Amino acid sequence: MLPLNNEMSLSMYEAKKTFSALGMEYKKIHACSNGCVLYRSRYKDAIACLTCGKSRWKINNEGKKIKKGVPSKVLWYFPPIPRFKRMFQSSKTAKHLMWHAKDKEYDGKLCHPSDSSAWKLVDHMWLDFASELRNLRLALSTDGINPHKSMSSRHVYDAIIIDLRTTTTW
Q: Is the pTM of this model over 0.70?
């Protein structure tokens, strides 16, 4: 499963230590179990959701006692800026990130997102953004979005994926 001479961490502590050494920190942010609010900034001390009134904390199995200190839902936030900065630290990776503006040959075919009319529209509308070769273009993908609350589930794992669009296609 892993490449030769690579070993998976034996404990969660070792895995976290490795991620931290690579600069891949994350932040845990408490959230309303219905997804109404994130308990940060001005809501960091709230004990119940200001929108729906549900408790911030988990309730025990009998449904009576609140387990203070155990959040009902947690968002794991992986800040992208440190990762983007780390990408440009390698000259090889930086070259691939700026390829769309420097080394691209247009042959009339849609081979890369930079060939699309949407990309060209962004370049036309925001000239300052387009002129900086190091600016990154991102695509946002989601899984598990339920805007009308028509599905019910005790556990929700919503993934939001940010995809980098400025790299080469090969």
A: no
